[in-house]
Design a protein that fits this description.
Elements: H1 2-45, H2 53-80, H3 84-173
């Protein structure tokens, strides 16, 4: 009787230890995911949108096109005998086009930044929900372990009481 009680207590302790180890690993994985998410957010939300590769490629292409147009413009003005005012007007148009490109990129950057923030919030909420579920599971495991211990104690007390009553009955029967 005592041996089975001890075996049950030992098995219960082993199960709780395994559950605690699994929950600790799950908590560590959640913490690592949150850390990576925070790092990604910091780098992308607070980073300079103009440094993104696709933006740099767009600006480089635009600058190359303007450079080519300027070369063509200087060549044609030399042949046709263009005025300095016409050159200045064309350069002004190119500068305006480049300014419009920067404005457009800045507008895209704002939208992109909003999406980064929205994705961060959604992913962070999902991780928080997983964290909450892990804590809820820990609480349920603790409650179940307490109930099992109480039930084992109750069963043990009942078995001892029954054994004592049986022994008392045998003792009275011999009288």
């Amino acid at each position: 009787m005592i041996i089975s009680l001890l075996a049950g207590i030992i098995q219960n302790a082993r199960n709780r230890r395994k559950e605690a180890e699994a929950q600790a690993k799950a908590q560590q994985a959640l913490n690592e995911q949150q850390s990576r998410l925070n790092s990604f957010f910091q780098n992308n939300y607070y980073g300079d949108y103009l440094n993104r590769p696709e933006v740099q490629a767009t600006l480089q292409n635009m600058q190359n096109q303007i450079r080519q147009q300027n070369e063509q413009m200087y060549g044609m003005n030399a042949i046709r005998g263009g005025t300095p005012e016409s050159l200045a007007a064309m350069q002004n148009n190119n500068a305006a086009a480049m300014g419009n490109a920067y404005s457009s990129i800045a507008a895209n950057g704002t939208g992109w930044k909003d999406r980064v923030l929205e994705n961060y919030i959604n992913n962070s909420m999902a991780l928080n929900n997983q964290d909450y579920n892990l804590w809820a599971q820990k609480a349920a495991d603790f409650r179940n372990a307490a109930q099992q211990t109480a039930l084992w104690n109750l069963d043990t007390t009942r078995m001892y009481s029954q054994a004592l009553l049986n022994m008392a009955g045998m003792g009275m029967g011999s009288l």
